[in-house]
Amino acid sequence: MEPPQFNEELSKYPPRPADNDQGADTQVQTNYSRVELLKKSLYVYRVSIVNKDTDGSEVNDTTVRKEIFLKARASSDLSTRHIYFDGKDYAYAAKSLFKDRDEIVVSAECHVPDLCLFEVRVQMLRRYEAKVLERYCAGDTRVPDSYVQGFMFALDAIVRSCPKPQLVEVGGRFLSDHRMVATPWGYDVWWEYRLTMRPGRGALFVNIGAKSVPVINVTDLAELSRLFFEKRAAMLHRKKKPTALEIADWAVFEPAIRGLSIVHREETLVVTGLSTVSASEVTVEGESLASHYQRLYGQDIGDPSMPCAMADKRAVPLSLCLLPRDKRQILGVVGAWQRDDFLRISAVGPEHRHSVLAHGMRILAGEGSPELRAFGIQISPTLERVGARVFDPPRIMLRQGQETKPVVMREGGWEMGGLRVVSSSPLRSWSVLVFGHQQGMPPALLRTFVNQYIKICVQLGINVQQTMPPVKYATAWNDIEQTLGEACALAQGPQCQLVLCVLPFNSVSLYGEIKRVAMTFIGVQTQCVQASHVRSHNPKLLTSVALKMNVKLGGFTGDLHSGDLPGMQEHATMIIAADVNHTTEAGGMSVAAIVSSTDARGGRFAGTVLQHPQRMEYIENFDVVIRQALRVFHRSTGLKPARIVYYRDGVNDSQMGDVKQIELDAIYRGCRLIDPQYRPLVTLVLIRKRHQSRFLHEGANCAPGTCVAGGAVSPSVFSFYLVAHRSPFGVSRPAYYLVLHDDVGFAAEDLKRLTYNLSFMYPIVSRSVTMPAALYYAHRLTGKGRLQLSRAFNTLPYFTKAKADEKAPRPHLVAVHEGLRDSMYFM
C-alpha cells in the first residue's frame, strides 16, 4: 500500500460551536485543580549514562541511574543548579544548565555492585515557554499539538515523580492511608495517587486519581499465608487449613509475595519465590533445615509441611521471614477470586472517594514539595466546580400488547416486564451442545433450563418454534469442527440457525475454538453459557441471552423515536464505528474492526474485521471497507447516505492527527469508488475512556445525560465529557469526545444529544450504556475478530506455553463465513 498523502485541508480541526458551553443548568464537582506556572521556561535535557569500565553499554536500572546522576552532578558545575532527573531518559530544569554549549559530559564512580567509572552525558533537548501554553489554553490554534504534548509530558514527569514528604513512597508509587479500609486478611486498603496535567479552557489543570492498593499489615510471611489461604478457602467454599495444603497448592500464593523485602536474622533479603518442596525436605549441606536452625540458632522453623521462601539463593522458613516494621509493602493480588474480593472491599462510595481526592490535592498544593516550588508549579488546593447540562432521556419504543409505545424511563433504564421486542426472527432450527458427561449435566436439569429459556423468549415476544431442541453431549474436545457439525446436523429443518453451547467452566481456549470454527468453517450462530449458569438459570441472565440471540438472528430490542435522532430523520445517515486491538494470543497481531449501520435508524449493523501491521493505529484498506458498507446500506434502505457520522475509539493525542487525516481521506475515497461525484457530509468524533476525569453532583454520581463542556476539555478542539450511564457502584467514568471533523456543521447540542441517545441502542440491556452502541459493537468485533484465525485457537503458544516456532507459518485472519456476513454475529 502506498503511504497516504498529506492533505492540509484535512489537518484542520473544526471551530468550536459558539454555544458549546452554553445552557449549563447545574454545577458538578470535578477531580482537578487549576495550575499556574510561575517560571517563564522549562528546559528538557536528554541523559545518557554508560559504563566506561566495561563495554561502554548504557546503564538501564532506574535506581542505579539516579544514584550515578546524583554523584556526577555533585562533582560538576551542575551542583549549583536545581535539576530533576526521572531516572529514565530526561532531566528537567527551570533555568538553562549551560548557555555556551549544547551538552556537558561528567564522570562519576559508583558501586553497582563493583566500583566502576561511568560517563554521564547531559544534552539540551527542548525549551518550553509558559506563555505559549497560556496562548494555547486561551484558544490559539496556531500552537502545534506536538509542542503542547511535549510540554505536558515534561510537566507530568515532574508532578508525578517528584518527592512528596507527606505521602508514603513504595517503589515510586505514592500512597496515603487517609480514610483507609482496614481488613482482617493481612492487608489494608490504602490509596495510590495518580496525577495528570491537562490543558483546559482558559487554564492549565492537574487531574488527581486515587487507585486502591493492598498494603500488608502483618509481621511475617507465615501469618500472611495463613490469612491468605483462610480467605481463599472461604471464597472457594473449601475447609482446608494451610497445614493440610499440598505443596502444589502454594503456587497461588507465590506471586503475592514475590519481590517483597523480608528481614532474616537482621539481614534484609528479597523474596524471589517459594521452594518446590516442603521445609521438612530441605537440606543444608546434607543436614535437614530444622536441625540446621536448631543447632546454629536455637530456633524452631515452624510448620515443616509449608514451603520455604527463596531469598538470595537460600531457603528461609516462612515463620522466620519477618516483614520490616519501618517499611510499607504492597501485596501482589493474584487470582480472579482475590481480585474480585479486593475490588469488593475497596468499592467505596463517591463521597468517600472524593474526600480521598480532596485530601491528596491539598497535599500536592501544600508546601511539602520543594520540587514543585523550584519549578514554579503552583497548584490550587481546591477542586474545581464547573457547569454541566443534563439531557433528558430519549423515547425508547417497545411493543406493549399490540402497539409500539415509548417505555417509562427511570434513571437511564427501564423494566422489561410486560414489554416485548420491536422485531424478532423465528427460531425454527437449533440444538444444544453440552461439553461434558451426562453425570455432570443431567438431561432433566438441562431440560428445565431450556424450558425456562423458552418461557423468557415468549415473554419477550421472541418466536421459538422448536421447543424441543435435540441435545448432544461431547466428552472429547479434540475436534471441535466435527463436534459442532454433528450438533448442527441434529437440528431439525433445512438449516441450523443456532447452537447453544454449554461449557463446563470458563475456558478462553475452548470458547475461542468454538467461535473460530462456527464463524469461519460452519457458518452457524453460537451462544455459549457456563454449566453453573444452567444450574442457576437466573431470569436476568436468561433475559440477556434471549435478547442477544434475537439480535444475532436478525431481530432487535427497541427503537429510538424519530424525534430523538437529530438530523437523521431529515437526512439519510449512516453510523460508522471503528476500534483497533493489539492482541497477545495470536502472535501479537493488530486487529481492526469496523461496524456500519444497515438501516436509517442506527439500529442494526454489519461488521468487518481486518488484520494489519503490528502496533499500527490507523486502519489500512479503509476505503474498501467503506465502499462495501455503503453498498450494504443502499441494499438495505434503497438510499445512499447523505451524512456519515464516524465514531473512532482508541487513539491518543500523538496519533490523533495522523488517524484523522488518513481515515477521513479513506472515507472520501471509498465514496468515490461508488460514484466519482458522490461526497456525503462526514463528521468524525473521537472517543476516549482511559482518562482520570470524574464528576460528582451533590456528593453522588451524576445522573445519566450529564454533559460537561468546560474546564479540562481541549481548548482548541470541540470536545465534551458525557456521563451516559448510571453507576450503582463506585464513581462513574464519563466518556470524553473530541470532534475532529464536521462537514455537517452540527449544532453542539444536537451532536451531544445524538451521541447520548445512541447509547440507549445497545440491545442486550434495558438501560443506557457508557457510549454509543456502535462503539460497543466495534469493541466486541475486535474480540470476536481475533478468533477468525487460520489455525486452531487452542494450539497457539499463548495457551500451550510452548515456544513459538519461527519456521512455522504465523496465524492470520480469515474471512467470516458468508452465512454470517450480514448478521450481527459479533454479539
Task: Describe the fold and architecture.
The chain is of the alpha+beta class and 827 residues long. Among the domains are: 221-324, paz domain; 397-543, Response regulator (Rossmann fold); 559-787, Ribonuclease H-like superfamily/Ribonuclease H (Nucleotidyltransferase, domain 5, 2-Layer Sandwich). It has 19 helices and 36 strands. The protein has a twelve-stranded mixed β-sheet, sandwiched between helices. Strands 8-9-10-11-2-18 form a six-stranded antiparallel β-sheet, with helices on both faces. Strands 4-5-3-7-6 form a five-stranded antiparallel β-sheet. The radius of gyration is 30 Å and the shape is globular. 41% of the residues are buried.
Set out the fold topology.
Elements: E1 26-30, E2 32-37, E3 41-51, H1 62-74, E4 84-85, E5 90-93, E6 103-111, E7 115-129, H2 130-137, H3 145-161, E8 168-170, E9 173-182, E10 187-199, E11 204-216, H4 221-235, H5 254-257, E12 261-264, E13 267-278, E14 283-284, E15 287-288, H6 289-297, E16 307-311, E17 314-317, H7 336-346, H8 350-365, H9 370-374, E18 377-379, E19 385-390, E20 396-400, E21 403-406, E22 430-435, H10 443-459, E23 471-474, H11 480-490, E24 498-503, H12 508-522, E25 525-530, H13 531-536, H14 539-553, E26 559-560, E27 573-582, E28 590-597, E29 605-612, H15 622-637, E30 643-649, H16 653-674, E31 681-688, E32 695-697, E33 700-701, E34 706-708, E35 718-723, E36 735-742, H17 748-758, H18 773-785, H19 797-800
Parallel strand pairs: 22-23, 22-24, 24-25, 27-30, 30-31
Antiparallel strand pairs: 1-19, 1-32, 2-11, 2-18, 3-5, 3-7, 4-5, 6-7, 8-9, 9-10, 10-11, 12-13, 13-16, 14-15, 16-17, 19-34, 20-21, 20-26, 27-28, 28-29, 31-36, 32-33, 34-35, 35-36
Helix pairs in contact: 10-14, 11-12, 15-16
